[in-house]
Amino acid sequence: MASTPSSDQTTASSSPMHDALVLRMDKAARTLLTSATAGEDIQAELQTMCLPITALWCRILRFDPAVPDWPDRDRYVVPSAAMLPLLAAMLRLTAPGAQELSPTLEYGQHPAVEIAAGPAGQGMAAAAGMALAEQQLANRYGRSLVNHRTWVLARDSDLATGVALETAQLASRFGLNRMAVLACPSPLADPADFSDSLARFHASGWSVRKVNAHDLGAIMNALQAVLRARKPTLLACIPANSPAQPDMPAEDELTGPWSPTARRGSSIRRSWLRRLAQHRARADFERDQMGRSRHTMREDWGRLWRQTMRSTPDGSSQQAAFAGLRSLALLRQDVSILAATSSTSSSRSANLPMPFGHAAQPCGIQEHGMAGMLNGMARHGGVLPCGVAGMMTIDRMRSALRMAALMRSKVLYLLTDDGLALSDNGGGWQPVEQLASLRAMPHLAVFRPACAEETFACWQTALNWPEGPAMLILCPHPPPHRTGRRSGHYGGPSHGGYLISCGQGLRHVTLMASGPEVAIATLAGQHLAEQGLNVAIVSIPCWEVFAQQPAAYRTAVLGTEGLRVGIEAASSFGWERWLGTDGIFVGMDDFGISAPANAVYERFGITAGAICQKVLARLLASGAQKGLSPSAPSPSRLEDLDMSLTITRL
Amino acid sequence: MASTPSSDQTTASSSPMHDALVLRMDKAARTLLTSATAGEDIQAELQTMCLPITALWCRILRFDPAVPDWPDRDRYVVPSAAMLPLLAAMLRLTAPGAQELSPTLEYGQHPAVEIAAGPAGQGMAAAAGMALAEQQLANRYGRSLVNHRTWVLARDSDLATGVALETAQLASRFGLNRMAVLACPSPLADPADFSDSLARFHASGWSVRKVNAHDLGAIMNALQAVLRARKPTLLACIPANSPAQPDMPAEDELTGPWSPTARRGSSIRRSWLRRLAQHRARADFERDQMGRSRHTMREDWGRLWRQTMRSTPDGSSQQAAFAGLRSLALLRQDVSILAATSSTSSSRSANLPMPFGHAAQPCGIQEHGMAGMLNGMARHGGVLPCGVAGMMTIDRMRSALRMAALMRSKVLYLLTDDGLALSDNGGGWQPVEQLASLRAMPHLAVFRPACAEETFACWQTALNWPEGPAMLILCPHPPPHRTGRRSGHYGGPSHGGYLISCGQGLRHVTLMASGPEVAIATLAGQHLAEQGLNVAIVSIPCWEVFAQQPAAYRTAVLGTEGLRVGIEAASSFGWERWLGTDGIFVGMDDFGISAPANAVYERFGITAGAICQKVLARLLASGAQKGLSPSAPSPSRLEDLDMSLTITRL
């Protein structure tokens, strides 16, 4: 094989012998495809794409059947489950021992299935994320270690969705010229739709080519052109004339090892292994690949945080989280940040400097494409993808976020501009149901820290969250006063929920809150304590982590008696989990309004005063039967009150 | 004014007098704009767009300041709050009495603000929906009654989002040549991004023109070309040279009535009123405008439903809902259906016949654009927009759905292919957290009917839901057995939740479910009743409607004693609302899997057998202290069991 690594993929010169191999394999693949149970239209698309994909696999793709997941392999992405039979056919023909693979292959069944099938367009975005990860790793380690491409077998529907068109813009902006998409028109759709898709990709800065899907020479020329392209490429494979029905190949052809193809891949991988063994950054590369950090990372990060905290002890959670991301990026070179314009709320421009320096790639307002790319970066490996975007844009990113959770990918999100404070633009920009909708998603951890100190603990817990993606929801305004732990505190934010403060003896009231509302709860607690009530203040920055704590811990934090009050500038949906059926929720039952922040909080009754009134009214109602008045009850009388305040919660 | 209605907008021939009016008004508008508190970039965009918008308002726009919401007005859509000062300036200059309008105008403050500001691109989609509604109403009533246009003052960010690009495709496919978008490049962004946007719109079948934003003659020519265009138009207003700073106009110029403009609008409206008065379909038109139906509608619809029910009494909720939509479209001509390809799950093609006949417009896989268009159709008035799409695509439509809820727009959704049954494509297609995420949204009503009979009641309730959008979540498979009301039933599906059946005396177990799981609950209930337990079966098709029932009704349905069990093939999030803290939830704690439907239900333990086991295990644990065995307890011994089964729920 070629000794210069960059030429691995450009040696695919055509020869009659090579062509014969491709055509034989194509014939065998078509036979395998006919056994796939697919609709007529899908079958037609599979047959159209068979020769181009076979040529790609035989002559171009960096793929070693023996080690299908080696790091410098080409990524071959199949966004739609309908197209997976073609991947199954390729694996069966090239990989010894893969003969038994089901034609309806699925994510998790073979390492060559790079992503789970998802909504149209998600695979395009994931592929762009892989190409971006490749670009970043190549910049870090050089082409001798990182020299692969990302190929996508797309359907026309993948090209026409909004997320695909956002991805097209981002791929062009980032110069992802090692990304190539192969697609064919759907036989059922209007051909003009497909042409329009090609034109839109061209308009987005892509190299767009049409090729006769049944002409091997033209296909090889087109694939060679892809290898030389300076832009991301879309290769439209047009079924110009109907292919001849393949003769049934002999049994040995179907099960043969297709050794030339396998030998090519194996040879490329072994020469890569030799280069890796001699590479001076080998240890770093392998650590990145495993997603590990240096063993001193935790300690170093803590030191940097403490420095930050000393300089801005009363900063907002957003400031603190950004500082944490900056220092994380200093300590871990695999951190890769994509930031949407919405995260720099003061401006709408994509070209303003990001608060994380050069480590962040600006993604403009293409948040959905960005979120899909983060998934691909995580699946690629070697990078730790972090997305930064405005809290309200999470609605747009939801399909992509779900794919991250479904694939249990380690993707970190920093969502900025949470809270009611940024209300100049009307109610449309104030989150209401977003928190509940995120907490309902399996495997996702949602953190909503109250202050800079909690942000540190949440950042660390999010980084170590083992199940899938994690997000920090951040407020740009510092809390009006310190909310840190006081007398009677118990546990800490890394447990998901903890006691900030609690008096001695039976609790009358437990105020629970998250994020900016913890400061309000603390203030309300002070007022109520002045009334002689025994008040506990609980911060629950992360429901998912708190729910995983032992029951005894949760009980100690939430208490077993007294009135429970939940405070969050959001929908009440789901809060019964912590409040029981008798608790009070103080939050938003409607969309926000345009007004200064304080006025919005007042409109929804999320103020210390309103909370105290609600609590006292409820206690008065409970205590009325005993003739007690809650207005300034003396501590001694409160002992009498206790029984009436105790609400049985089995 | 012109007597032929279609020439209303084409009489804007240029003359020195007209030009002088526009230029004077432009000068005044610029002065008003300088008082708007906007960033430098926004201010620059406002100034760039000032002359084109002023020319539009003075010479083209069908707008009567005296009656700004008359039905045949041009729609002038401002998607971004940042651009509203220009609308405020136009209103202040043209409308007597509008001088006190705040420059930071908002939705709800003036009828000329057609939509609430939302995420980038939503306004584009809403405008396309308005243009589609205009097209449909013009087809129904003719150009003498419906002859207006939709104008959008967009920003570059509105053009670059995925939803805008999906909208561009749909607007072109539907031939919305009465939609025109005016936009200018952002001074902070790369000019190439704006050019790419223009190219993408051109590739989507739009007419794209560039015009010097400071050349009135060129602007008037371009606007005239828009009036003649056979495609949707994008007019890019380029600030070719810096405008001269306007002299401060005299006070009377700022507050003057700009009578020529106002007179033009008033004259157009009055001639329209004369045509309406003589129109033979006047009553229909006015009823459509008020969103009312004929007073016999309810009865007629019921009759058609009963016919359907007789022919397919055991059909799926999806079949029933489609039949209901078909008959609704027969009875109400204002019903307008947009259907995504995902709603016809057997095929991916946009060109297949829809199950609703010619009444449905096919929207392919551009679900997000479609959802945004539904909002615009609702805001336009005269049509009742119904969207049909696959359940899983709701994640993509979420930003648009939220705008409908925020504007309390009457938009109906039919979401198909709910449930675990369609699992061939892997876990990504099985809803898990979607139900919770939708129930958390204010003003939205989510219906999940169990059977054809419930579907009828839910359809009617959804149609009358007063707060905003409503959706029916539908399963394509008929329930395995009848789930209708039996002995002890109470209430009905139109109450949101009701008792399907209940024995006499103290309840031991209340099984609650929705949708396809009601049949499973019914079966489990039969098994448990055979064990001598007193079981109540509750169907909760709509939480929002059920929560609005009187507390006494809810208590009668849910019962006050016994074990509560929630059964839903979805996330448990939020179910504590009905289960309390001691209930059992049977559902999904993870994403779905690929397997035949029955296997998926078994994997998650959502079977009658597994539910019975869980219930008996819990009752055994509760009863253990009393030495009771729940295996086949005799009815007499159950009386003893009662106390231990009674779980206090204050």
Features:
homodimer, Rossmann fold, 6-stranded parallel β-sheet, 5-stranded parallel β-sheet, 24 helices, disordered N terminus
Can you walk through the features of this model?
2 copies of one chain form a homodimer. In chain A, 44% of the residues lie in helices and 12% in strands. The model of chain A is unreliable at 1-11, 345-353 and 625-650 (pLDDT under 50). In chain A, strands 7-6-8-9-11-10 form a 6-stranded parallel β-sheet, sandwiched between helices. Chain A folds into 3 domains: 5-277, 3-Layer(aba) Sandwich (Rossmann fold); 297-473, 3-Layer(aba) Sandwich (Rossmann fold); 493-645, Rossmann fold, CATH 3.40.50. Chain A is of the alpha/beta class and 650 residues long. Chain A has helices at residues 16-34, 40-60, 84-94, 122-141, 156-160, 162-173, 191-203, 216-228, 251-255, 259-278, 282-289, 297-311, 317-331, 367-380, 398-406, 434-439, 452-464, 517-530, 543-547, 551-558, 576-579, 597-603, 608-623, 635-645; strands at 75-77, 150-155, 179-184, 207-212, 233-238, 335-339, 360-362, 384-390, 412-416, 445-447, 470-473, 498-502, 509-513, 535-539, 563-567, 584-586. In chain A, helix 18 (517-530) packs across helix 23. At the A-B interface, helix 6, helix 7, helix 15 and helix 16 of A face helix 6, helix 7, helix 15 and helix 16 of B.
